[in-house]
Every structure is written in C-alpha cells, then in structure tokens.
Amino acid sequence: MTTAVVGSANLDLVYRVERIPSPGETVLAVSSDAVPGGKGNNQAVAAARAGAEVTFVVALGRDAAGDRLAAEARVAGVRVLDRRVDAPTGTALITVDAAGENSIVVDSGANARLSGLTAGERDAVTAADVLLLQLETPLETVAEAAALARAAGTLVVLNAAPVRQLPDELLDSVDLLVVNEHEAGLLAPAAASPQEAAQALAGARRAVVLTLGGDGSLVVVPGAEPAAVPAHRVEVVDTTGAGDTFCGALAAELDRSGFVAGRAKGTATRDLRGATALGALVSAARFASAAGALSVQRAGAVPSIPTLEEIRALIADR
Ligand code: RIB
Predict the structure, then answer these.
(1) pLDDT for 193-248, tens place per residue?
(2) What distance in Å separates the CA atoms of residue 250 and residue 239, rounded to the nearest whole number?
(3) Nearest CA to 220 among 182, 183, 176?
(4) How far does residue 270's CA lie from ligand 1's centre (Å)?
(5) Distance CA 14, CA 138 (A)
(6) Which CATH number fits the domain that encloses residue 91?
(7) How many folded domains does the chain comprise?
(8) From ligand 1's centre to the CA of 236, what distance in Å?
(9) Cα–Cα distance between 53 and 163 in angstroms, integer?
(10) Strand pairing of 2-6 and 130-133?
(11) What is the span of the domain harbouring residue 281?
C-alpha cells in the first residue's frame, strides 16, 4: 500500500509570543526556532510516521533550507521526489501565542514552481493507492495530479487548505475532502451551518471529513448517516501542523484499511459511499484524531508529528 503526496514544503520560522501582535504593534518573542513545515511536507511526514509508505512530490530551492527539508523528510521515512528550481525554498513566518494558537504568513518561493508534472512525478501519483493533496502549490498542478489519480483508480484525498475557490473539474476528481469549519463555509457559502456545508460538498459520490478542532470531526458519506468522531481532551502547546497531522494520519490509516485494499484499482466500485466506506472513514478519523491530539501537545510542525506507536498507545489508553 502506498500514499503519494503532491505539495509544499516550507522552512517554518517560528516565534513564540505572549500574544500575536495587532496591526502596527511590535512585540518581543519569548523564543524562536526554524523547523521543517509546509502543508505537503507535514502531511507526508505524518503519513510516513503513521506507518504508510509515502512518496512526496515537491519543489525545493537549490539552497540549505531545501537540503534540510529533503534530508529530514527522508529521515522520517518519506521517499522524497524533489525537483530543485531557481527560486528559494518556501518559508513560513509563524507566531504562536501562549494559548498555542498561531498566525502564519507563507512565502511560496519554490512551491509556486511545482507545475507541469514530469513522467516520474506522474508515475508516483498513478502507482499510489492514495493521493493526498493540499492547496499550497499551483491549482493547475493539484487538478492535474487529482485527474491523473482519479483515472488510475487512486483514491484522491484533498485537504482544501489554505482555502480558495475550487474549479468543478478538480472537485469532480476528489473522493474525500477534508475541511475545517471555516473552509467548509467558504466552499459552500449558501449552507446555513458547517455541517450543512459538509453535506453540500459531499454531494452524491464524495465523502467529507469536517474537522471541528476540540469538538472532534464529522464524517459525511453519501448513502449513510453522518457520524461524529470525538476529540481527545489534551493540554494545547501549539496547534501548528495539527490539521496536517490529522490529514496524513487519516490517509495512512485509510491506505491500510480493508476498504482501500479491497478496492479494485481503476474500476467503478471506487466511490466512498455507504456503510462500508463510513466504517472505514470513521475508524481512520479516530486514528487521525489521536495523531492530532498528540501533535498539539508539542511545539512546531514536523517536530510535533507522532509515530505509529505513540498513536496506538494513546488509542489503547482511552
Ligand atoms: O499547516 C501548517 C503549515 O502551514 C506550516 O508548517 C507552514 O509552513 C504553513 O504551510
């Protein structure tokens, strides 16, 4: 079973502050650090640490940050398919306050150059059982990878973050959409609540996992009643990368599940519909929720991502 991730990598420049500054204000940091991050990289590492065999398609600069991100992802067990481009590796400026909440500004750099997938990158997508995507790289590339995967029978999981309008042809290729309340509201503006937005986004053949922070998540699968998955109650140190950890762990657990293993690649019986799909997704969401709960108790994006053993220990402890 293999998972492919096509997405971004950033060097996160993290400043811990008492409170996030208002416009025009200067505050002094309590501490600062530079650690691996980027939604694609976080999700690839999270899936690998959760036990998946992961290939990560990414654009990095020809610089020390690019070398560091590739090396640390490899140490985490990720097969990194990095193209090196004439642009600096992406960076993110992150402030984290005393309550563990953050604000993030991303300078895309090399991530903006991940376009026109090469033969090797396309092969990685079509050979995988699960493809995991986010929206920090050019939309055309996300759409290209999703369409290739869909045609090959690879399960397509899209985490619509950072949120932007999605063309219908991209959504048509997505089997499972992972969104938080804010993202769900923006993608389905006519809906009266995030839950209603998740139903609208699911439509007739797509599953949706709506993440609700400390309130857990809601799994919506066509042809079945929505199912709520509770969150673990934990002390929050830093929420950076928690959503990515959830997505990576979700993909890894789905990849391991009998549901994905039992799907005949490239056939019409692929849709996440009905009771069997709901069962597979609910158990993957429980696993992902434990991974997310572990990650918020530690600082940083990649440094906070738990291993399979840690996730299983937390689940067994419950
Ligand atoms: O989701 C968290 C990530 O968002 C950070 O690691 C940062 O790099 C931005 O991509």
Answers:
(1) 999 999 999 988 899 999 999 899 999 999 999 999 999 999 999 999 999 999 99
(2) 17
(3) 176
(4) 31
(5) 25
(6) 3.40.1190.20
(7) 1
(8) 17
(9) 27
(10) parallel
(11) 2-317
Which pTM value belongs to this model? 0.96
Give the nearest ligand 1 atom to 36 CA. 6
Q: Is 271 a catalytic residue?
A: no
CA distances from 162 to 65, 214, 229, 260 (A): 22, 20, 23, 27
CA-to-CA distance for 114 and 6, rounded, in angstroms?
9
* Cβ neighbour number for residue 42 with a 10 Å cutoff: 33
Residue with tokens 């750099």: 109
Return the residue whose CA atom lies nearest to atom 1 of ligand 1: 241
How far is it, in rounded angstroms, from Cα 176 to Cα 281? Answer: 10
Specify the pairing of strand 31-37 against strand 155-159.
unpaired
Task: Exactly one of 129, 175, 244, 255 is catalytic; name it.
Answer: 244
Please give the distance, rounded to the nearest whole angstrom, from the Cα atom of residue 46 to the centre of ligand 1.
13
